[in-house]
Amino acid sequence: MIDVWLFFSLFILVLVMITHTYINALVRQAQEEAGKREVMFVSTVPGPPNADVKSHESNFRRAELFNSRAKRAFVASLILFQAVFWTVSMRAYLAGPDSFL
């Protein structure tokens, strides 16, 4: 049983690293687009926001939404796994050694 718990813990760590990498990529993309937008406004007459501004804001918004959903999913999966794992483990423990023979 300890192997299952260890595998799940390592899997969660890898999943957290992948999630943070994706969020970092979205934020960097939004920052790069924001930098391009600032350069454009310096060299042109200010006007209404264009599609670049909307994509810049949408990337930040996507990163925020993904982060909040990922937090909830991680907490829910950890609670669910712990509840199932310890329920199964305690049943096996309380069944005694005769159930293994």
Task: Explain the overall architecture.
By secondary structure, this protein is mainly alpha-helical. It has one domain. It contains 2 helices and no strands. The relative contact order is 0.11. About 7% of the residues have low confidence.
Average pLDDT for all residues: 82
* Number of beta-strand segments: 0
Written as H for each helix and E for each strand, in order along the chain, the element string is HH
| Number of H- or I-type helical stretches | 2
* Large-scale geometry: rod-shaped
Distance N to C terminus: 17 Å
Structural domains: how many: 1
The major β-sheet equals:
none
SS content category = mainly alpha
- Report the C-alpha radius of gyration, rounded: 24 Å
Runs with pLDDT <50, length 5+? 39-45
Proportion of residues in extended strands: under 5%
Can you give the helix content as a percent range? Answer: over 70%
